[in-house]
Amino acid sequence: MDRNYDAKIAQELKLHAEQVADTIRLLDDGSTVPFIARYRKEVTGNLDEVAITNIRDRVGQLRELDKRRATVLSSIQEQGKLTDELKEKILAAQTMAVLEDIYLPFKPKRRTKATVAKEKGLEPLAKMIFDQTGIDPEREAVQFVNAEKKVESTDEALAGARDIIAEWINEDANARAQLRKLFYDKAVITSRVIRGKEEEGIKFKDYFQWEELARSAPSHRILAVRRGEKEEFLIVRILPPEDDAIAILESAFVKSKNADSQQVGVAVHDSYKRLLSLSLETEIRLELKKRADQEAIRVFNSNLRELLMAPPLGQTNVLAIDPGLRTGCKVVCLDSQGKLVANDTIYLAQSEGAREDAAQTIKSLCKKFSIKVIAIGNGTASRETDQFIRSIGLPKEIQAVVVNESGASIYSASDVAREEFPDHDVTVRGSVSIGRRLMDPLAELVKIDPKSIGVGQYQHDVDQNLLKRSLDDVVISCVNQVGVEVNTASKQLLTYVSGLGPARAQAIIDFRNGKGPFVSREQIREVPGLGPKAFEQAAGFLRIRDGKNPLDASAVHPESYPIIHRMLKDLGCSVEELMAKEQLRKQIDLKKYVTEHVGLPTLIDIQDELAKPGRDPRPPFQIFSFKEGVMTMEDLSVGMALPGVVTNVTAFGAFVDVGVHQDGLVHISQLSDRYIKDPHEVVKVHQKVNVRVLEIDPKRRRIALTMRKKD
After folding, report:
1. What is the DSSP string of 215-267?
2. I want to staple 240 with a disulfide (CB 3.0 to 4.6 A). Which of 171, 186, 362, 403 is the partner?
3. pLDDT of 279-313, one tens digit each?
């Protein structure tokens, strides 16, 4: 089944149908979201990545719905029960829930109480009672008593008839729709601790006796109670007031107060308690989980984007230290390209002599490899190592920076790290990761599963397929926004370039290793397995610095080079001159170069790129230092003002590293003097902030902080 979704999606996303249609066509043709957003602005009407992604995801949902719709139609057709009216209802269903409600009476079933009753010949009795014409159910039931069919009494006959009626009520699409609305409007999540699990499940104490309206419950609480239930510490139910549910069903199915209607009333209660309440509770659980997943993933996405787009130090010689007390500090030296040139181990906790040796080792390495910056991991002994480095009398131009090392241990034990450094152990690899993520966070963090970077919220509880796809979208967006130097990029970084993927990334590496650095973008066409479509998608995001053509170092797509050649001819200058001289660029009349396929959006992008070719969109790097003398929780005091770095932003607040080996929490109510709904309105991951200590709880290792200026 192939439908035109343009108008529907356009209405939902408040876009023009032409924009949606053209975007779907580009996506179906194999174009990526970054490519469409950057190089097809005229086609989409200047849609950004968010809008294009929303269109991609929504058309995927609608196609899945239509796929299921086709299956339902085929199944009912095979049963010989597909009427024109039923087909019309199925084609009109706008959601999967409504479609499944329509299909429910025709869906192949396991044996149920109603199935057994029908086998006993009780369906005619059920129909007589359900019609509610005023019959006497007891009298009519007598004729259905049949020992051979195991109906021993009128009570058994009536019970079987009610089972059948209960199933009819359960399968009534209108009744389910009304009850579904009640569940979504009034269902309450109730959570209770399982008796005897109070001590073992203490981390879920907030939910030992808790209830909240389901529709307004925040993502983190929904995921928390689900985890408590999964770990068998909590009993969780999600139900609306039972009287309201029964009232809806009685209004729909009980027609009078006669004896037959009383039987229907009993069936109504049974249908709700035994069938409908369980079915709809399962449905709302799934819907709440989906909503909670989406919110948790949205928060994760935002945090990951900020972390990946953190300011890079750039091409600088770096000495990186992975701090350690008992086993020593692992030290590595990296050249300006991130290549490992030396490694050693120093000991700061052994003896004064060992500290003197360590100081001499650091000084010697700094001098020998012209070190400009020292990167120190923020794990155990980080502040002690930082203080030691600052005390040994290094030249003032050598700066020390504490680096978030979350995920470094994951990288160091990975196949990627073993492939990069087969002759070094995990400690050396971890130190290299710390140094490289200071030089270029994006290039290094793409080697690590985003779930291990430490900026998520309940990331192991959410839909893992949805999480992976969403996080991949973020990584792809960031990589392509920054651009990739094709001659130095790792396979992992190239993998995320539009149109490439792992196989083509490896092919580029192999080509580069075999024939030397690429000298032009055009040469990329020669890579085996990289066809015209892949080249089209990737070329604009791949950079070649110091190549034959200066444009190859920019974000101008090769397909637009002819336009620039026309500009050069009209101005009588070279590419180098056009890039260097603003007065020449000001002479360009962009409207003169508009064609059927190239409009002002692309021309404006070209003009901007000529002014700053290959510019890095990330903010400039700034040195940050924690407060001197504050190294452990014991050094903190209520009211103390501290500089800090935001390490994670959640729905309920932000975690801030203040240099004491334990992040403090700035609750959402303490982030600003004004009311805010979302912490991301105020703070981002990796942001430098000033905080004050509100409360210290050494036993629970908790620090409460505030960013409010007013008490």
Report:
1. GG--HHHHHHHHHHHHTTSEEEEEE--HHHHHHHHHHHH---SSHHHHHHHHH
2. 186
3. 999 999 999 999 999 988 988 899 899 989 999 99
The residues that bridge with 690 in the sheet, in sequence order, are: 643
Question: Both tokens of residue 613?
Answer: 């070719």
DSSP E strands in 347-493: the ranges are 373-377, 399-403, 484-485
Our CA angle for 687, 692, 695, nearest 5°, is 120
What tokens appear for 597 in the block? 């396929």
CA distance 369 to 532: 44
Task: Look at residue 1 and tell me whether its pLDDT is greater than 50.
Answer: no
pLDDT interval class at 175 (50, 70, 90) = very high
Name residue 624's amino acid: F
Give how far Cα 43 sits from Cα of 22, 207, 482, Å: 6, 51, 23
Which burial class, exposed, middle or buried, applies to 243 when counting CB atoms under 10 A from its CB (0-12, 13-18, 19+)? exposed
Give mean pLDDT, residues 31-59: 95
**What's the mean pLDDT in 378-382?**
84
Give the pLDDT score at 622. Answer: 87
Nearest residue to 98 via CA among 236, 283, 222, 281: 283
How big is the chain by its Cα radius of gyration, in Å? 33
Tokens of 579: 């890039």
Here the tokens at position 524 are 């990329």
Amino acid making up residue 119? E
Which parts of 581-689 fold into alpha helices (H)? 582-586, 600-611
As a whole number of angstroms, the distance between CA 508 and CA 489 comes to 10
pLDDT for the residue 711:
64
Residues whose CB falls within 8 Å of the CB of residue 499, separated by 6 or more in sequence, listed in order: 32, 35, 533, 534, 535, 536, 537, 538
Residue 648: closest CA among 431, 407, 461: 407
Tokens representing residue 21 in the block: 């249609």
Phi, psi dihedrals of residue 544, rounded to the nearest 5°? -130, 100
The tokens 């369980």 sit on which residue? 278
Residue 381's nearest CA partner among 357, 405, 360 is 405
Interior CA angle at 110 toward 108 and 112, to 5°? 120
The span from the CA of 587 to the CA of 656, in Å, is: 50
Cα–Cα nearest to 543, from 497, 581, 474, 495? 497
- Maximum alpha-carbon separation in the chain: 105
User: What DSSP line would sit under 627-641, residue for residue?
Assistant: PTT--SGGG--TT-E
Residue 347 near residue 362, CB atoms below 8 Å: no
DSSP character string of 94-107: -SHHHHHHHHGGGS
Task: Tell me what the pLDDT averaged over the chain comes to.
Answer: 92
Please write the tens of the pLDDT for every residue from 515-564: 999 999 999 999 999 999 999 999 999 999 888 899 999 999 999 999 99
Question: Using CB atoms within 10 A of its CB, is residue 31 exposed (0-12), middle (13-18) or buried (19+)?
Answer: buried
pLDDT > 90 fraction of the chain, expressed in percent and rounded: 75
Q: How many CB atoms lie within 10 A of CB 351?
A: 10
Domains of the chain are 6-106 (1.10.10.650), 113-301 (1.10.3500.10), 318-439 (3.30.420.140), 633-706 (2.40.50.140)
Q: HSE, CB side, 13 Å, CA atoms: give it for residue 308.
A: 29
Distance between CA atoms of residues 473 and 496, nearest Å: 9
Cβ(9)–Cβ(1) below 8 Å: no
305-331 pLDDT per residue, tens: 998 999 999 999 999 999 987 788 999
Tell me which residue has tokens 């996506």.
27
Inter-CA distances, 204 with 192, 213, 695, Å: 10, 19, 22
Instruction: Show Cβ contacts of residue 36 under 8 Å, excluding neighbours closer than 6 positions.
Output: 23, 26, 27, 43, 44, 47, 52
Residue 276 DSSP label = I
Crossing angle of the two packed helices 17-28 and 6-13, in degrees rounded to 10: 120
